[in-house]
Design brief:
Length: about 800
């Protein structure tokens, strides 16, 4: 009693509770910063949860070790060592931000957890054994209250720290522990008694080692089970080997503990029905407590506030847990732990059900506060005093450290299993968010009308240029957002965007959807524009080919036209020569004809003279000598003489004999023969010339016809060249229009993107509402789990029929 009088219980209580507060705050303080930290260090949500899970694993593994070491080395020694490790781990956690290493953060969290594992059991054992019995209930109630309140308001403190220093300086949520740890180390060194057990049995090193391995195996294995895909994950290499190892080590651990002088865990605990119920209820309280981890996110979703600010709502939980914890201690002293725990579970069930059926359906300040008040009160009644009482009253005083360490260890089992399942609820709801949001996305991209689209479509048909897409149809492009990220999609969504969407909160989900839509548009538009470019390029190639053909045809025609012009000129010259030759030939023929006519006339005249003289000769032959010798002109009777031409009469005036007359007749006969020969020659010449004229005339007609045909062809070719030139001008205009259209495509799609994203942003309210409702499904499942767990706890308490009293 003398020693007790020297102890300053108020200061001892303060130092221990401050340590409990610091250790418990650190679980909650990380909660609002979890997504910020994982994004900062470049890991996804499944990996990021390890910053909480690994702390819980290492914390659970260290509890029995630290509890047993406290029995040997003294509670103050182990408590201050735990505070030192916790402070060192906090410092290293903060430095991991500067190092940019998530692995380093996890190592630092393990150091923190090893220290944290020695804080709660040692402090609880100290209050439960050294404090006067009349103060013990209050002290144990304060332990549970501080632990629960710290767990709860840790999220609020995290939000406040990030608001003060900014989300980019999240290391300060760990640095705040360092000065607190330094203060506790200094104050504890002077104020705390170093209580230890007098027995010096051999330490159970092998049992401690096996227990640590078993705890890590069972908790790691259970943590990796996806309860939505239970069979597949149970057979995964990160689950079943650890569960098998736990099962194989269990018989060995039992064997070692039976032979140990001072076992790390008394197996008798598990043969005592009341202790077994106590430990099972402890698991349930761990599960219920982990539901608080998601309260900030739930509040953010229901109240549509940004990530980090949800931690402030946890203050409500802290206030009512802080009120309920010491009250539960007093009530436990008076009414016993069973009633207190029952009230706590009932309040938790009421709060969880209210949250499921009211808060998530009608989110608002009032409904959120009511659910948090009920849950906070329930936590205050179930954490701390009742379970500590139930455990301490069933064990000897010298086993208090081990008993409370076992209680903390078993409670940690619930805190490991619960987040694995609860994160699964959120993850599955988050996975559904993607599909639900994709259905809200606009399904069409409205592209401004491309210049000359209609004209080019018509030109392509008229010019028979293939390969061009229907440019007028490009004003509306379908986009299938529902298949985004699936094998049916033309676009592969990167994990970073999917994680961003799944890790969004209700205030950032529109931005995430905006980023998703922007990415999909940027991924799809190059394919669409490439199709347009390819088609336009094919059209340009076709037009250039047509222009080249036109140029070739024009050049060929112009060359032919030049040949025709030369031919026409040659033919014109030939016609002129032919005309000159014809003129000359016709002139010669006229001369020949004139000579022919003259000779023919001479022959006729000579023939007349010859015939008349022959008549006279014949007459004179008839009359003969009877005629007197005189000129024949005077000797002829008038009847004969009247038939003669005057020329013959004149000629007969000189004729006196038949012989003379004969000579004259023969002379005329010779002249006629000569002239006949001459006229025949002239006729032959004339006929020959007529043939030449006819031939030349025919040749001239052919040349003239050819010339006329060539002139006509030249005129046709000139018209064809004009037509080709006109067509080429039109085709070159088409080419210009194609180039203008092609140049306008990027601008058109930039405008389309702006309009599309504006359409996405205009659906912000619907997107937020859909996100909120879908994610609320996960929160309903989480708090259904806490309600069911609490109901199971109530049923177990029905089996706990004995009101425990510790024998004096």
């Amino acid at each position: 009693m003398t020693k007790e009088k020297k102890l300053n219980f108020g200061l001892i209580l303060t130092v221990y509770l401050l340590g409990i507060f610091m250790g418990a705050v650190d679980t909650g303080i990380v909660t609002p910063a979890r997504t910020v930290i994982q994004d900062s260090l470049g890991v996804n949500a499944n990996t990021g949860i390890w910053m909480i899970t690994i702390y819980t694993l290492a914390y659970a593994a260290s509890i029995p070790v630290m509890g047993k070491l406290a029995d040997r080395m003294g509670r103050r020694t182990i408590y201050l060592l735990s505070i030192f490790l916790f402070g060192l781990g906090s410092l290293l956690c903060g430095l991991s931000h500067n190092m940019g290493s998530f692995t380093f953060l996890l190592i630092a969290r393990v150091i923190q957890a090893i220290g944290g594992g020695g804080i709660m059991p040692v402090a609880t054992a100290e209050f439960g054994t050294t404090f006067p019995e009349e103060k013990r209930g209050m002290a144990l109630g304060l332990v549970g209250g501080v632990y629960g309140v710290a767990n709860i308001i840790g999220a609020s403190i995290g939000s406040a720290v990030m608001d003060i220093f900014g989300t980019t300086r999240w290391e300060f949520i760990f640095f705040v522990n360092v000065p607190i740890a330094v203060f506790i180390l200094i104050a504890g060194f002077f104020a705390l008694p170093n209580t230890r057990e007098k027995a010096q049995s051999k330490i159970d090193g092998l049992g401690i080692g096996l227990l640590v391995i078993m705890v890590l195996c069972i908790m790691y294995g259970l943590k990796n089970i996806d309860f939505f895909n239970f069979t597949d994950t149970l057979t995964g290499t990160d689950v079943y080997p650890y569960l098998i190892a736990f099962c194989l080590l269990m018989p060995l651990f039992i064997f070692v503990e039976h032979r140990a002088e001072d076992p790390v865990m008394h197996l008798e605990y598990f043969r005592n029905k009341r202790i077994l119920i106590t430990l099972t209820v402890a698991v349930i309280t761990g599960i219920v407590l982990m539901g608080l981890v998601f309260v900030p996110q739930m509040c953010e979703n229901c109240m549509k506030i940004k990530t980090g600010d949800g931690g402030y709502f946890v203050i409500i939980l802290g206030i009512f847990a802080g009120i309920g914890a010491p009250l539960s201690g007093r009530m436990t002293d008076r009414r016993g732990p069973k009633m207190v725990l029952s009230l706590g579970f009932i309040a938790t069930i009421a709060g969880s059900l209210f949250l499921i059926f009211v808060t998530t359906v009608y989110p608002g300040w009032i409904t959120v506060i009511i659910s948090l008040v009920l849950i906070g009160t329930g936590i205050g009644f179930t954490m701390g005093a009742p379970l500590n009482y139930m455990m301490l009253w069933e064990v000897d005083l010298r086993e208090s450290n081990s008993a409370l360490a076992t209680l903390s260890l078993v409670r940690s089992l619930g805190t490991v299993i619960a987040p694995a399942i609860m994160v699964g609820f959120i993850a599955h709801a988050g996975a559904g968010v993607s599909g639900d949001l994709m259905k809200l996305m606009p399904t069409e991209i409205n592209v401004p009308k491309l210049p000359y689209a209609e004209e080019l479509n018509q030109a392509m048909k008229e010019q028979n240029i293939t390969g061009m897409p229907d440019l007028t149809a490009m004003t509306t492009v379908k986009i299938d957002m529902t298949s985004a990220g699936t094998k049916d999609s033309d676009v592969t969504i990167p994990d970073s965007l999917l994680n961003e969407l799944q890790n969004s909160d209700v205030t950032t989900v529109t931005d995430s959807a905006h980023n998703m839509a922007k990415y999909m548009f940027e991924e799809m538009s190059p394919k669409i524009t490439a199709k347009i470019y390819d088609g336009v390029d094919q059209g340009i190639d076709g037009v250039n080919t047509a222009i080249a053909k036109m140029d070739t045809a024009t050049a060929k025609m112009k060359k032919g036209q030049a040949g025709m012009t030369k031919g026409i000129s040659g033919m014109t010259q030939a016609l002129a020569k032919q005309d000159a030759a014809l003129t000359k030939m016709q002139k010669g023929r006229a001369g020949i004809q004139k000579g022919y006519a003259g000779v023919s006339s001479g022959i006729a005249a000579q023939r007349v003279l010859h015939d008349q003289l022959s008549t006279v000769y014949d007459y004179m032959e008839t009359v003969g000598p009877a005629m007197p010798p005189a000129p024949y002109a005077s000797r002829l009777p008038d009847s004969v003489k009247s038939g003669l031409s005057p020329a013959v009469v004149t000629m007969l005036e000189k004729v006196y004999s038949q012989q003379q007359l004969k000579g004259m007749i023969d002379g005329f006969a010779d002249n006629i023969t000569t002239l006949t020969t001459k006229v025949n020659k002239l006729k032959a010449s004339r006929d020959k010339l007529d043939k030449g004229i006819a031939s030349l005339t025919a040749a001239r007609a052919q040349v003239a016809a050819k010339r006329s045909k060539l002139i006509s062809q030249k005129a046709s070719m000139t018209a064809a060249i004009a037509k080709i030139n006109s067509g080429e001008k039109s085709t070159r205009e088409t080419l210009r229009q194609m180039k203008v259209l092609k140049a306008a495509v990027p601008g058109a799609f930039k405008t389309a993107e702006k309009n599309y994203l504006k359409d996405v942003d205009s659906r912000s309210a619907k997107i937020e509402s859909t996100f909120q409702k879908t994610l609320n499904i996960g929160f309903r499942q989480i708090y259904a789990m806490t309600a069911i767990s609490s109901a199971v706890g109530l049923l177990l308490l029905l089996l706990y029929r004995r009101k425990l009293r510790k024998d004096s």
